[in-house]
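Task card 7
Instruction: Convert sequence to structure tokens.
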Amino acid sequence: MKNRIFTALFFVAAGILIAAGPLHIFGVCEPTAQKTMKCVWTARAEIGVGTLIALLGATLAAMPPVAGRLGLSIALTLAGCLAVLLPETLIGVCGNPMMQCRLLTYPALLLLGSLVAAVGLVNSLYLFRLLKR
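Output:
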């Protein structure tokens, strides 16, 4: 029971950081009248992915059957991978290595997404072993 609550709280906190971080904490470039930078679109996409991670984490806390939690953990692993892929390859961030989005937002999203994917994978393996007993 405690494991489920701690894991769920981690996912909810990480989801909130992924959703709110690029716009409010880490910061991305400001859109101008001439051009909207790629990092702005990445930040908007991460709102959806982070919200999904937070909601799946909250559902994980309320889900009693092991099989249901296993499915949610697999979904969280894939959502963490998506959180990494958005700034890495799908949309990207600014090309200038001195921009704030490249120095702060990009590594923060890679770290948070990787942590979500890793914890989701470990939790999936743990729940799979419980299910096989």
